[in-house]
């Protein structure tokens, strides 16, 4: 490979924009046909500034797409029972079609118990155990938003994972684990690496598709990228720095997601798309057609 | 490694026997303390001869351990709704502590829907979506029996998966996928291989721990076994032949499960252990102590 090789960038901003537009027209259609606008409830515990910003951003994007945003803020001192009670009420409320519990919920709450209070048909953020199993078994259901966005990006760039070796670095419940299962469902050979992995470099060097999801700046060395690889950098560290040493990686990869503008924008786009799908389903307008794919 | 090297055999028969004995004493204790014997309901659809044999074997082992066995047979023509109705009734029956739906259920039934009718606290065979997610996230719950048996065997032979590269060949919902997640939970680096994997041999050769779960006789070539590896052969093909070419594999591996007498006996042992745990929990005698570990 010549010194001047530069990987093509996978443009998440543009794709996310198109998905958001499609979600907006579908939301308008739903509102017109049913008389009810799709509604996403956001739930935030405490006032962590990053979480406040994320929730604000998600709500603004909803409103721009014609999705009603309902917000519920609980004090940092809220108990698991209080949070579960609030989420259960939203799960039962026919006016709410999707529920997003902003992670993390703080030290006083059993986050898993709280997540499980989200009704499966409203789990548009793909965080429940049922959604994870559905992703793992190739069953219908909502996907975790970042993994779903990654799969959609691969599709957009005509990357068929079948028979490719996908290496996922990171194993969180909402990113590493589900994206590995989705890749496995698309017939990739999948390796999960993490903090206990020995010889990480030698495994990364085998990756036809690399997903970096560790949250450590430039953790993946560019020289470990296999020539011609597809590199998905799902890290987002302070200063707009990804988990991959992008300068070197770009000289070797075939396709790479920039940070910012790669995986990041896809997450909210998937959230919007799944919220309108949930609303359509609950309002009896389900068409089987996904705005993610339009 | 000298020509005369022979891997040590991992004796599943003996370990399974000890677990079954422990389950039997715990069953007796539960019966004495609560006046109610633990009860496993087995459900069989149709009369496939292998399935009939498996169910008969499981029932006999239950009875030997002092676990009441209740059997429900449905005709091969049963519908999903009929099967779900029957399983739901067992889920609600306070006299039944565990439910096993024998796989496969035949072509007329949506097996996933049927599995999901099993109440989580009675899912002693570890087949529900919730149990899979619990295994994946390291949460309390019942494990799939064969994966659970494999993990227990590794423990018995002092194999700590942390930092080791575990390669799982096969990705079924009740064997390959969950055993990979359990190994990941014990901090192994985990690779899933399957029918679409390219260059299988080169991946198998990296395996510190190899789990073969494909159901194809001698599918894993002995010369691909990494010297010193731990080889778990979960295959059981006609003629007592495993998925691994054992003759060559034994000259290279450190530990290997024989077929038969390795993984096979562990499956029922885990079923018995989880049934008495379920009964103890439901009868208010839960001690947090697992007979699997005793």
Commentary on this structure:
Chains A, B: NADP(+) binds at residues 170-172. Chains A, B: Residues 10-125 form the Tetrahydrofolate dehydrogenase/cyclohydrolase catalytic domain. Chains A, B: Its EC number is 1.5.1.5, 3.5.4.9. Chains A, B: Pathway: One-carbon metabolism; tetrahydrofolate interconversion. Chains A, B: InterPro entries: Aminoacid_DH-like_N_sf, NAD(P)-bd_dom_sf, THF_DH/CycHdrlase, THF_DH/CycHdrlase_cat_dom, THF_DH/CycHdrlase_CS, THF_DH/CycHdrlase_NAD-bd_dom. Two copies of one chain form a homodimer. Chain A has two domains: 32-120, Leucine Dehydrogenase, chain A, domain 1 (Rossmann fold); 144-264, 3-Layer(aba) Sandwich (Rossmann fold). In chain A, helix 2 links the parallel strand 2 and strand 3 (68-74). The first copy, chain A, has helices at residues 12-34, 49-64, 80-92, 111-116, 129-137, 145-156, 176-185, 200-204, 246-250, 263-282; strands at residues 8-9, 39-45, 68-74, 98-101, 165-169, 189-193, 209-212, 230-233, 255-256. Chain A is of the alpha/beta class and 294 residues long. Chain A starts with 7 loop residues before the first strand and ends in a 12-residue tail after the last helix. In chain A, helix 6 (145-156) packs across helix 7. Chain A is built from ten helices and nine strands. In chain A, the strands form two sheets. The first copy, chain A, has a six-stranded parallel β-sheet with strand order 1-9-8-7-5-6. Chain A has a three-stranded parallel β-sheet with strand order 3-2-4, sandwiched between helices. The interface between A and B is medium-sized, with 31 and 31 residues. Strand 6 (189-193) of chain A pairs antiparallel with strand 6 (189-193) of chain B.
